Structures are given as structure tokens and as C-alpha cells.
């Protein structure tokens, strides 16, 4: 397998899964500062120019960080990072993993790249404001859903945890975000300090 990655990007969650499962994977950094994600060679791998992308040994390309994390855990996890298929815990994990992808990740994109979502130069600030509101609403829903923790599934660490921690780490004002959301703050801290992930976290954030 070959992972295309960049520090601080969505590839963090994929690297986290690789680290947790002790998986060896060829890696190639995509230099965002040099706009390599827009180079023809990378667009041939992922036409959207987004990072990460995982190329399997047979040439199959998997994109979207949540999809890659799920694939790796299902294929190589041997019971780690994913509850058993068909269990209520698996259903809950999938619910919140895709909730985070559709809501938190999308709101982050709108907040940091508002010019992509409007052709009105005077509409950029409105896009950012709406994105911030959407992000916080989604965080409030997650905060209510989280139990005694520290993780999404209680004491069981899963692929959902580095994913949510990454999305909240990107927040533009973390003290404000976590001030009224102690369960999300606890999950974020638990992932950042996890022994297998602490060094990786420091490299990315």
C-alpha cells in the first residue's frame, strides 16, 4: 500500500490507524505549500486533489479519510478499532463517524475555504459565519451523545476517536469550543496523549 499524506491534513486519521495497528505502508508526502495536490501526477491519483489517498497493492485507490480508516480497520484490525459487524456498537460508531464527516468536516471546509462556496466576493464572511454555527451545532449534538468516555464508545478506542479529535483540533478557537463541551475536550485530550499517537499528534498539529 502507498499513502499520500501531508502533515496537519486529513491524513492524520489514516496515519493514526496505521500506528494503532502496527501496519507498514509506503508513504509519499504531498507538499501543499508547493501546490503538489494540484499537480497532474497527484490528480491522476485523486482527481479532487484532496489529501489523503491510499493506493492498494492492486492499484485500487481509496480516498476520503473516514473511508480509508474504515477500510484499514476492517481489513487489518483483527477486532481492534471496530466493534463486531452487526453489533449496536458498530452501528453507533458508523452513525457518528459519518455524522462527523458530513457535518464537522464539511463545516471546517466552509470556514477555512469560504471562497469555494460563493461567487459573491461579499458573501465570504457570511459563509464563514454559517459554517461556524453549523460546526458548533454539530459539536453540541456530539457532546450530548458522548457518555462517560473517554472515547466515543466509552472505554473502547475506535477509528471515530482520532477522526473527531482531528476535526476539533482544527477549530479556530479551541478554548472557546471546549469551554462548554467537556466531553469533547476529554476525547480530544485522550487521543492527543495516547501512547501510540502522541508523537504523531505532535508532528501533525
UniProtKB/TrEMBL annotation:
Keywords from the UniProt entry: Transferase
Domain GST C-terminal: 86-205
Stretch forming the signal peptide: none
Occurrences of domain GST N-terminal (ranges): 1-80
Keyword Endoplasmic reticulum attached: no
EC number(s) given by UniProt: 2.5.1.18
GO molecular function: glutathione transferase activity
InterPro entries: Glutathione-S-Trfase_C-like, Glutathione-S-Trfase_C_sf, Glutathione_S-Trfase, Glutathione_S-Trfase_N, GST_C, Thioredoxin-like_sf
PANTHER family: GLUTATHIONE S-TRANSFERASE GSTA, GLUTATHIONE S-TRANSFERASE-RELATED
Entry protein name: Glutathione S-transferase/GST-like protein
Gene source species: Limibacillus halophilus
Amino acid at each position: 500500500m502507498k499513502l499520500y499524506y501531508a502533515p496537519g491534513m486529513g491524513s492524520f486519521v489514516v496515519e493514526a490507524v496505521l500506528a494503532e495497528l502496527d501496519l507498514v505502508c509506503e508513504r509519499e508526502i504531498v507538499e501543499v505549500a508547493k501546490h503538489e495536490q494540484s499537480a497532474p501526477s497527484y490528480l491522476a491519483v485523486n482527481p479532487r486533489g484532496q489529501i489523503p489517498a491510499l493506493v492498494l497493492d492492486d492499484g485500487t485507490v481509496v480516498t476520503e479519510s473516514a473511508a480509508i480508516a474504515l477500510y484499514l480497520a476492517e481489513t487489518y484490525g483483527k477486532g481492534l478499532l471496530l466493534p463486531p459487524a452487526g453489533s449496536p456498537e458498530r452501528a453507533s460508531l458508523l452513525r457518528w463517524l459519518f455524522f462527523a464527516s458530513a457535518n464537522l468536516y464539511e463545516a471546517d471546509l466552509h470556514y477555512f475555504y469560504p471562497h469555494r462556496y460563493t461567487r459573491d466576493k461579499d458573501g465570504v464572511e457570511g459563509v464563514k459565519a454559517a459554517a461556524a454555527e453549523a460546526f458548533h451545532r454539530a459539536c453540541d449534538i456530539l457532546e450530548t451523545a458522548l457518555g462517560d468516555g473517554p472515547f466515543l464508545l466509552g472505554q473502547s478506542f475506535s477509528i471515530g476517536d482520532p477522526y473527531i479529535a482531528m476535526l476539533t483540533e482544527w477549530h479556530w478557537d479551541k478554548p472557546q469550543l471546549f469551554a462548554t463541551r467537556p466531553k469533547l475536550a476529554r476525547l480530544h485530550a485522550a487521543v492527543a496523549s495516547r501512547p501510540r499517537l502522541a508523537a504523531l499528534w505532535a508532528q501533525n498539529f
